[in-house]
Amino acid sequence: MKKILIVGAGPVGCYLAHLLKRQAPFLKVSLIEEHPSSGEPLHCAGLVSRSVFDEAQIKFSEDSIINWIDSAQIYLNGDTFQIMKKEVAIVLDRKKFDHNLSKNLDINYSTRFFSIKKDKNGYIAITDKGDIYADIIIGADGANSLLRKTINFQDNVQYYSAAQVRLETDNIKRHQVKVYLKKPFFAWVIPETENICRIGIIGNNPYQSLIEFLKEINLQGRILEKFGGILPLGFCQTQKDNLALVGDAACQVKPLTHGGIYYGMRCAEVLCDCIVRGEIHNYESIWRSKFGKEIEMGLKVKRLYEDLDEGGLYNIFKFLKKNKNILEKFGSFDRHSAIILKLIHMRKFQQLLGTLLLRLI
Ligand SMILES: Cc1cc2nc3c(=O)[nH]c(=O)nc-3n(C[C@H](O)[C@H](O)[C@H](O)COP(=O)(O)OP(=O)(O)OC[C@H]3O[C@@H](n4cnc5c(N)ncnc54)[C@H](O)[C@@H]3O)c2cc1C
Question: Do the strands 27-32 and 2-7 form a parallel or antiparallel pair, or are they unpaired?
């Protein structure tokens, strides 16, 4: 019986383990997780599309869904507009989501992966609880993947930092997210209920920026929880011999929103199929054929956003405000290329971008 070891019992590692258990009962699948349980510490805003549940190849328990979103209010320097899209996203209790996914798996908790060495037929994973032999090792160990670093996979990864609080306050629009475009990055308010929301920001000094942001939007209340995290963007090598990366470890993340759950899960399905067919060497080309172009396009738009000056950004904001029906019609929560392509084919948008358009093309 071949042994597969997954490093990291986050949502993507656990999802992969369930798929392998179901599709390859001839494999022995186990996981190691450095924390004493899955889902903690929390570092997520928990906003995903319904597709995370609907497209999953196993049935996910829905008791982790705590709210749904029908609209987004977008802000830039005091100006604002609203995009409506019924049930465009759902809000997760991430702790419960991860915990549900971790059930019925062989997980060794409180076990930290350190490094790896080649054994004659497979690999030895060196952990703080001793050595573990495996024929195949998968790194699902998140943004700062130690497996990726240990095996020197080539990468071109940029790391962003985020901070978030859960705030108890009044008068929250329960089914609306608020997005504040704040160069060089952005901030969000995501409602859980009518009086609890998640407020977060991506920034170079995110905790300080978050304090300033809370003052700026004058949202007062009681802070229930504070947390932060690292968001990886870019590309990296994701497979070599019988080693592979998936999820945040593989940078399978949407560059414009930094959401990683949807792509990570779809890529786990690709990896599972490749392992089952004995074709792990095809994993990278298959997942890139599904999401590579999306990620590439998202990265270009993200860099453009970061490079635009305030005036240029405001002109684009006004254009989007005027054409918000296009955002409503063509915007997709998980596949941003549709709306990007629609916009860059509009003459007025091309004029606004000027020479920057060449970079997108
Ligand atoms: C502030 C913030 C907000 C976010 N908001 C959203 C959002 O709204 N929607 C969305 O889709 N995504 C969001 N994300 C991204 C999302 O959290 C990740 O894409 C998702 O968690 C990736 O899942 P994963 O299983 O690949 O990695 P992780 O969830 O990071 O899981 C990796 C696991 O590996 C374990 N691990 C790491 N190193 C080791 C080691 N050496 N040994 C053993 N175990 C190890 C970790 O403890 C962890 O449990 C957000 C991220 C941040 C930081």
Answer: parallel
